[in-house]
Specification:
This protein is mainly α. Helix content is 66%, strand content 0%.
Amino acid sequence: MSQDKEKHIPANWVLSALIEMIDETLYHTQTFAHALRSHNNEQAASVFFLACEQFETEKEIVAEHTQNDGLPSIPPWEMPFPEYQHPSSHLTEAHYLMTENEARKATERLIGAHQTFYATLLKENREEQVIRCVEVLVRHHEVWK
């Protein structure tokens, strides 16, 4: 998303960006959860699998708000907002021998990245469809804590 308030960003682009971010996070979280499990680290794996449930629910929430709209494809080089960090960047310190506490901190960083994006959307976006969706996502995060 541009810092330029004059530039209008359509709701379908924003919703598509949300789905892309959630999909990327879900992919990396699931991949790492399975890798942890295959390395017999069930405690840390269970934390990542629990986070996957969170991200699956987020994806369902966004899907409910798209109303079967045709969403655009967003090229991978597009950044939803200037401070955006790819979900995998929050897993740089993750390793196969991590403790359950370390796993919890890693997944909290992923969730924090989502919360930052949602806060940015609430601050900068004026599309009613986007605001309704993001408000539900924010409430979902509050309940999940």
